[in-house]
Each structure stands twice: as structure tokens, then as C-alpha cells.
Amino acid sequence: MAGSLGLNDHHQNTVVNYMRFARYQRGQRLRCVDSCFEDLKSSRLFEDTYTIDEVTEMLDGLLAVLRGEVDDELLNTSHTNVLLLRQLFQQAEKWHLKLQADISELENRELLEKIRDFEEAEFTGASRDADMSSVLASSKLEPLNESGTSALLSMKIKELEDENATLRDR
């Protein structure tokens, strides 16, 4: 699974683009955390000595800021994932499909490690900003078009013809 997720090329490319987007967002959030610490250092750490109460107050303030930032970003990530699922479900509904997800697999450590390995293999040495520029350049998730319908029907017809041939041979 290090080189492939078991998906067709189109779907795997879509996953890779989403991973680029997620890496970029993660980098932005880490820069925000760095900024919170830098702000504390530059605005509050100008004296040589502090009392325990002053240090506690500074750390409590930093904690409050970081908690707010992390909470906002986790909420944003959750909503982004819901938008992605919404796009997929809308496409599936167009073709009267009902997709299912095994939520318990979302915490499968072995699969998560495989995805991490895939991401590392996919993005080794790539800069996050370059990754994001390719995401922005790529198009939106494309809905299935009529050629997709005929390809799907052709595949089903071929499958049924093979089954008929097998039944005739019997």
C-alpha cells in the first residue's frame, strides 16, 4: 500500500490532491502555533525574572489562545471533511447509489500507518507550498458525465454476456 491505495488512477490522484490540501492546511496551523509562541516571547518576555504567578498567568493566556486556535481548526477540518463527503454523496445519488462508510475503520492504527507511509512516499522532498499550488491549479471534483454512463453500461453488458456464455456452455 506504500505506492497505491487500491484505487483507480483517477481516484488515487483525487486522494493525493486532498492530501496535498490537508498538508498545506496542517502547515498553516503549525505556523499559527509558532506565531502564538513568538507573540508571547516578544510581548511578555522582556524582563529578567518573573514570579510564579506571572509565569502561570502567561502560560494560562497562551493555553487559552492555543486552545481556541486548535478548536477552531479542528472544527474547520471537520467541516471540510463533511463538504468532501457531501460532494461524493451527491455524485453517488446522481447515479442512485448508496455509499456506506465503516466508521470503526477510521481509527484502525494499521490502516492509518499505511496511509502515513503512502503520504510520506508520495510527498518525500516536496515543499508544502508547491503542493498547495498544484491543488489550487487542479479542477473541482468532476461529476460523472454521459461517457461514464456508457462505460458503466458497457462493463455491465460485457459482464452479462460472459455470464450468458458460461450458462450456454453448461
Write structural notes for this entry.
With 170 residues, this protein is an all-alpha fold. It has one domain (9-144). The chain is 75% helix and 0% strand. It contains 5 helices and no strands. It has helices at residues 9-44, 52-94, 109-123, 128-137, 146-169. Helix 1 (9-44) runs antiparallel to helix 2 and helix 1 packs across helix 4 (128-137). The longest helix is centred in the middle third of the chain and has 43 residues, at 52-94. It is elongated, with a radius of gyration of 24 Å. Residues 127-141 have low confidence and may be disordered.
> What count of domains describes the coordinates?
1
Largest sheet: none
Backbone structural class? mainly alpha
What is the strand content?
under 5%
Q: Would you tell me the overall average pLDDT?
A: 82
List unreliable stretches of 5+ residues.
127-141
Kindly state the number of beta strands.
0
Span between N and C termini? 40 Å
Q: What's the helix-strand series?
A: HHHHH
**So how many helices?**
5
Please tell me how large the radius of gyration is. 24 Å
Please state the overall shape, judged from the principal axes of the Cα atoms.
Answer: elongated
Query: What percent of the residues sit in helical stretches (DSSP H or I)?
Result: over 70%
